Amino acid sequence: MWPRKRFDIRLRDIAVGVVHCLRGVNRQKARKLLESFWAPEGDGLAFLSVRSGFDALWEALSLPRGAEIIISAVNIPHMAEIIRRHNLVPVPVDLDLATMGPQLDLLPGVQTDRTRAVVIAHLFGGQVAMEPILGWAQRHGLLVIEDCAQAFCGREYRGHPQADVSMFSFGSIKTATALGGALFRVRDPELRQKLRVVEERRPVQSRFKYLRTLLKYAWFSVVCRPVPFAAFVAGCRLVGADYDRIIHSAVRGFPGDDWLLKIRHQPCGPLLAMLLRRLRTYDYSRVARRAAKGELLLKLFAGHVFCPGAHALNRTHWVFPILVDNPVEVTTRLQQSGFDAARTHSMVVIERADGQTSLPEAHRLLAGLVCLPIYPEIPDEDLRKMAGVVLASQPPRPVLVPSAHPVG
Ligand SMILES: *Cc1c(COP(=O)(O)O)cnc(C)c1O
User: Fold this and answer.
1) What is the pLDDT of residues 224-266, one digit of tens each?
2) What count of Cα atoms within 13 Å lies in the side-chain half-sphere of residue 154?
């Protein structure tokens, strides 16, 4: 069975991380090396996670209470919650499901004189065209923050050069994961300095905690190979356990009600060293190979299945989402055919506090979303088989109703 996800890290990397944890690493030095390797321009900053840096950002900015932050309507729940915890108001803007960017014509309507910033998420491994958004934001003096957590594809792309802040995640399910950590670029030196001050006041993550994470994922990455995974799924079914829930809760970073306290830490030396190692030694051809697999699926589905983000730029297919009317049936059929497609994912529709705006596209996306397994190890032959299962489970499309006045 092809598991939904393959942790994008080798046991070798984890072993090196374990050694770093046991020996200890000079944290200041590791941070300097990492940040200058990531951004030789000098605008790089490392954090424990994207959420940690995003939280530090609002503290550093100290915007007036009630300031509004426009945000792409779909993201992980913590991102909107972090904005709220700083007494700011996330204002969602509905998505264009073809590009996964915000619908540009909605932007002026959600902007008020309290708007201070806009947060754009590049979802599913593609990129949103930033120029029109940047132009609009600059005209209104808004800060532009890019959430590139799902879009890491190598150092050639480190966010749009004109965005104020670009954030990349190396959490466990992300491309080239370090099992934690995030890298930002912050263009304004003054804001960068403020962020550093916030960061340096935070306690440092315990390296033994990171060691535990490494060991947990060493085990996971073995389980998440086709044969052991099939056995794991069969075992769970045998004892009546919901393997979907087990996986989902196991890979969640910062679980629990005290997540905000947990994210407010600096990364430990071994994590910083691991991040640098990943940037330096990651096999970037994996991204190209995964992207090619995704493009093959797009071709197979063209005209038959709606693929959100099919018109995004530089698609690297971090995940391969499809939008169907019968997600339960499609998922079941795929699983019966050996493809661990998943309906569970960590994203939600970000609602307005006053429930004012309707977000039909965002809701439509999350209601019918199925994520297909996609990574370089799956042979094209199996991808074709998977596409066949999806196509066969699609009800015939409603055809145009014939004219009420038949000719002749
Ligand atoms: C994973 C993810 C995050 C959070 O990244 P962490 O480094 O785990 O905090 C934020 N936004 C999006 C869109 C993500 O996919």
Assistant:
1) 787 888 888 888 888 888 877 777 777 777 888 899 999 999 9
2) 10
Closest ligand 1 atom to residue 173 Cα is 1
Task: Give, as one character, the DSSP assignment of residue 99.
Answer: T
Reported as a single tens digit per residue, the pLDDT across 177-227 is: 999 999 999 999 999 999 999 999 999 999 999 999 999 999 888 887 878
Q: Which residues contact 107 (CB under 8 A, 6 or more apart)?
A: 70, 93, 118, 133, 136
Q: What is the pLDDT of residue 236?
A: 87
8-state DSSP, 104: G
Q: Which residue has its alpha carbon closest to ligand 1 atom 5?
A: 50
- CA–CA dist 276, 265 (Å, integer): 19
The DSSP call for residue 43 is T
Is the shortest distance between the CB of 175 and ligand 1 below 6 Å? no
Report the amino acid identity of residue 275.
L
Are 3 and 232 contacting, i.e. CB atoms less than 8 angstroms apart? Answer: no
Query: H helices of 202-284, where?
Result: 207-223, 226-238, 243-250, 259-263, 269-281
The C-alpha atoms of residue 334 and residue 315 are separated, in whole angstroms, by: 24
Q: What residues contact residue 130 under an 8 Å CB cut-off, 6+ apart?
A: 120, 144, 146, 160, 162, 163
| Count of alpha carbons within 13 angstroms of residue 357, beta-carbon side | 23
3-state secondary structure of 395: coil
| CA distance linking residue 217 with residue 214, whole number of Å | 5
| C-alpha–C-alpha distance, residues 360 and 278, integer Å | 39
Distance between first and last Cα of the chain: 56
Find how far residue 284's CA is from the centre of its chain: 18
Amino acid (one-letter) located at 355:
G
Residue 127 has pLDDT above 60, yes or no: yes
Q: How far apart are CA 165 and CA 144, in angstroms?
A: 7
Q: d(Cα 339, Cα 2) in Å, to the nearest integer? A: 5
- C-beta of 171 in contact with ligand 1 (< 6 A): yes
Model confidence, pTM: 0.94
Q: How many CB atoms lie within 10 A of CB 265?
A: 18
pLDDT in tens, 150-172: 999 998 899 999 999 999 999 99
- Determine which residue's CA is closest to atom 4 belonging to ligand 1: 50
**Residue 334 CA, ligand 1 centroid: distance in Å:** 27
